[in-house]
Amino acid sequence: MDFKYKQLEQELSALSKLFSELGVRLSEVAKEVTAPGLNPSEKLIEQISATRASFESVRGAIHGHATAMLVSPLPKLAELVSIATIDCPAVT
């Protein structure tokens, strides 16, 4: 169980770094796309899509592990909408 937790912790950390890098890139591109008629590059759109897929994968894995560990109360998967809510979900 400890191994799985460490693995998920590392995946969440890597995802957080990926989000940070994407945020910087989006900030840079924001100026470019404000000009009329310019679209974000295909590469950027692919990066956004890949980051979203990574988020959903890590979110699902962490939620599945929490389910197996009988975490209670367990937030619904749809409530885990950010790294912050995954890392430390609000207890209601």
Please name the defining characteristics of this protein:
elongated; mainly alpha; 3 helices; single chain
Summed up, what is this model?
This protein is mainly alpha-helical and 92 residues long.
Q: What does this molecule look like?
A:
Helix 1 packs antiparallel against helix 2 (42-68). The protein contains three helices and no strands. 70% of the residues lie in helices and 0% in strands. It is elongated, with a radius of gyration of 16 Å. It starts with a helix and ends in a 5-residue tail after the last helix. The protein has 92 residues and is mainly alpha-helical. The mean pLDDT is 88.
Shape: elongated
What is the percentage of strand-forming residues? Answer: under 5%
Individual helix count: 3
Order of helices and strands: HHH
Structural class: mainly alpha
Overall residue-averaged pLDDT value:
88
Helix content: 55-70%
* Biggest β-sheet description: none
Low-confidence stretches: none
Cα separation of the termini: 26 Å
The strand count comes to 0
Please tell me how large the radius of gyration is: 16 Å
